[in-house]
Amino acid sequence: MKIKDIKIGVIKVPLTTPFKTAIRTVDSVEDLVIIIETDTGHLGYGEAPPTSVITGDTLASMQDAINNHIKPKILGVDIENLNFLCETIQSSMVNNLSAKASVEIAIYDLWAQMLNLPLYKALGGGESKLTTDLTISVDYIDKMVSDAVIAIEQGYETLKIKVGKDIGLDIERVKAIHAAIDGKALIRLDANQGWTAKQSVHAIHTLENAGIHLELVEQPVKGRDIQGLKYVYDRVNTPIMADESSFDPRQVIELIQNQAADIINIKLMKTGGISRAIHIADIAANFGVECMMGCMLESSISVSAAAHVASAKSTSIQKIDLDGPMLCQYPSIEGGVIFDRSDITLNNSPGLGIKSVKDLILI
Ligand code: MG
Questions:
Q1: Per-residue b/e over 56-75, b at no fewer than 16 CB within 10 Å?
Q2: Does the annotation mark 313 as catalytic?
Q3: Which pLDDT value is given to residue 24?
Q4: Do residues 270 and 97 lie in contact, with contact meaning Cβ atoms separated by under 8 Å?
Q5: Which of these is catalytic: 267, 270, 313, 319?
Q6: pLDDT digit string (tens) for 239-264?
Q7: In terms of pLDDT, which residue wins out, 267 or 18?
């Protein structure tokens, strides 16, 4: 099964409601999709969002990285050389992690198809069902409260509340949501780097003292501010999760050795795909550190891959934040993983099980 060609396209899927964090507002998923064609006729699918504010990747930069830096190095290579392919992709250029991720996802899809196994079984196996949380965008308090209440009515048992816009308002936001949902769901906070270290300690202490149990607080301070993250970690009881501070395995080792985070958020778009995500999950497992599998604003292709990895690496990946497809108005694919509100059901067909991509425009 040799790589014959790589086709690149884009999909645009409107969101059910605008996605708002401390650093951006987005109305639709507009992602790059790649299809790897092989000499056996098998197709491998990959996807990556242009999350320029977090990874630096844009649609144009990903297209250039794939066409001019990755594709020439892997054309003609047999899929059975999985490790060689991943190392070639990772060393093709620095950064450009989402572009690399899209290609790795398609290659793992093909590798599992070659083995005639769903990806999670090819990776060692795991549960075929996962449960995700739902993100509540940062907004006016009334809107966040009603979004949270609707989510609970829809069966979500964990809510990820976006904060980080205004420290005083953030505390009020969380108090109002906590009161409205009345213990019916677990609350995670994601400040998306929006607080200083001192503000973080103040906010978390205020909420702890108000008797509000937070499952975790994600990335309260700037991604590069590891000292700040440790400052918060050392002063609060609530578990602290690194997201924008943890892209690659080395950073994760540093976070763990410096005792700066309790939990690591793994995203395929930060790690450059599946191979490094597995490295991080294995490192964390060896240190007894828990991970979350998360996603950017992605549709079903790349989130399916993340779900398969999370299932196979459940020793460390015990939390799931894979709500991207549920934020979309409709699924971007036929076949594959089924996303039904909080329930994720992995495909039993080979690879990612994707039959086709809807409304794909080749570029
Ligand atoms: Mg985050």
A1: ebebebbbebbeeebbeebe
A2: no
A3: 85
A4: yes
A5: 267
A6: 999 999 999 999 999 999 999 999 99
A7: 267
Neighbours of ion ligand 1 (CB under 5 A): 190, 218, 243
Cβ neighbours for 173, distance < 8 A, ≥ 6 positions apart? 138, 141, 144, 161, 163
Q: pTM score, two decimals?
A: 0.97
Separation between Cα atoms, residue 11 and residue 49, nearest integer Å: 10
Give the Å distance between the CA of 238 and the centre of ligand 1. Answer: 16
**Mean pLDDT across the stretch 310-333?**
97
Indicate if 162 belongs to the active site: yes
Q: For position 280, what pLDDT does the model report?
A: 98
Give the residue among 349, 279, 332, 334 at the shortest CA–CA distance from 128: 349
- C-alpha 274/C-alpha 276 separation (Å) is 6
- Distance, in Å, from the CA atom of 231 to the CA atom of 264, rounded to the nearest integer, reads 17
Ligand 1 centroid from CA 241, angstroms: 9
Three-point CA angle 322, 190, 165, nearest 5°: 130
